[in-house]
TrEMBL record:
Its main location: membrane. One of its GO terms (biological process) is proteolysis. GO terms for molecular function: serine-type endopeptidase activity. One of its GO terms (cellular component) is membrane. It is a multi-pass membrane protein. Keywords: Hydrolase, Membrane, Protease, Transmembrane, Transmembrane helix. The chain crosses the membrane at residues 12-44, 64-85, 97-126. This is MarP family serine protease. Gene3D superfamilies: Trypsin-like serine proteases. It holds the Pfam family Colicin_V. It is found in: Membrane.
């Protein structure tokens, strides 16, 4: 059952009724051709951004130009295809059974398309650099949330979102045995999974996606580069369903750690422990902005490393734990847990040479930052966007 509907929900209902009536009049065949025209036009229009802009200019304005171009060319494609469909419909016998079924099919098709268009528009709004005044109605829309749960939202988000700018580090190797997949059977993923969250936001006009984990009541740990420069940040418990507004209360560029305060987040905190070299671990998160993912890994040593921060500034000295295992874009900010489900490190980078080695900030450092955030829960400046 749907909960309380907001104004946006009622607008979606009205839009569905309008397209259903239009589909009843136009028929299924003409409506289907119109959809083909919309899809073709939107695809062509969305190519305008890379054609018109490049380099730094593209970053802040590319998504908006893609959206505008897609809408304009979609309208042109729809008009051309509908004209063809109307001519075909007139060939059907007036008042006959075929015409009646064509009209009924058109009504159902129109209502379904209205819901799909509303879902796509909602995703685009959440990815565009707009005010939270526009984001919030979409996030609180019961209809949009139900659609987002049932439709392949991750595929669409991957199309329009920039995945997290996972830093590459020319760091130490993880000179340990290969990962042991047996750890995946030892973990209680039903308990751990909900406390690993998807972190989403808008930075410099594009969407950024990463991972995070619940560290204390109402607090989530992620990477600073995931939320850098963001105007709006949200988390999704378990990576799906309702997005909860999040506020950055600690932003540590040197250690690439951010702590988010999330009102209404009622999930168990994950325990922490110090990393032990050679220990089998699991790498948890949402790589590729996809579903919850668990990969086996093995801890290397913890080293003091001198490198640049994620802005390319330095030198910066920090403690990092090497991890032998697959670390991908989207894993940033996710937990690395041992067989007891304790977080031993927080992923922040992959190895520059492409080998299956990642790097995490060891939990003792993260614990100190969590304590600081608990003592000073005021909003923190998130700096400029990550490179």
């Amino acid at each position: 059952m749907l909960g309380e509907l907001n104004i946006l929900d009622w607008l979606i209902v009205a839009f569905a009724v309008l397209l259903a009536m239009r589909g009843l009049s136009a028929g299924f065949l003409a409506s289907l051709l119109s959809l083909a025209g919309v899809v073709a036009g939107a695809f062509l229009g969305s190519r305008l951004a890379p054609a018109l802009l490049s380099g730094e200019t593209l970053a802040p304005y590319g998504p908006l130009i893609s959206i505008a171009g897609a809408l304009i060319f979609a309208a042109i494609g729809e008009a051309a295809a509908r004209s063809l469909g109307d001519r075909l419909r007139r060939r059907l016998k007036d008042g006959g059974l075929v015409a009646a079924l064509d009209g009924l099919g058109g009504a159902l098709f129109g209502a379904a398309m209205a819901l799909i268009f509303a879902w796509i528009a909602g995703v685009l709004i959440l990815q565009a650099p707009l005010s939270p005044l526009l984001h919030n109605p979409v996030q609180r829309s019961e209809i949009f949330q139900r659609l987002d749960e049932r439709l392949p939202s991750q595929t669409l988000l991957q199309t329009f979102a920039r995945l997290d700018p996972l830093p590459e580090l020319d760091g130490p190797d993880a000179d340990v045995a290969p990962p042991d997949a047996a750890i995946l059977q030892d973990l209680d993923l039903q308990t751990l999974g909900p406390s690993v969250v998807r972190v989403s936001g808008i930075a410099c006009g594009v969407g950024v996606e990463g991972s995070g984990w619940v560290a204390a009541p109402g607090l989530v740990v992620t990477n600073a580069h995931v939320v850098a420069g963001e105007e709006y940040t949200s988390v999704q418990p378990g990576g799906a369903g309702q997005r909860l507004d999040a506020e950055v209360v600690l932003f540590d560029v040197r250690n690439d750690i951010a702590v988010l305060r999330v009102p209404g987040l009622d999930l168990p905190s994950l325990p922490t422990a110090s990393p032990i070299p050679g220990e089998p671990v699991a790498i948890l998160g949402y790589p590729g902005n996809g579903p919850f993912d668990v990969r086996p890994g093995r801890l290397g040593n913890t080293h003091a490393v001198i490198s640049s921060d994620f802005y390319g500034r330095g030198p910066v000295q920090r403690q990092v734990t090497s991890i032998r295992g697959l670390v991908r874009q989207g894993n940033s900010g996710g937990p690395v847990v041992n067989a007891r489900g304790e977080v031993v490190a927080t992923v922040f980078a992959s190895r520059a040479d492409g080998e299956r080695v990642g790097y995490g900030i060891p939990s003792p450092i993260v614990e100190d930052l969590i304590a600081t955030a608990l003592q000073n829960p005021e909003p923190a400046d998130t700096g400029p966007c990550a490179a």
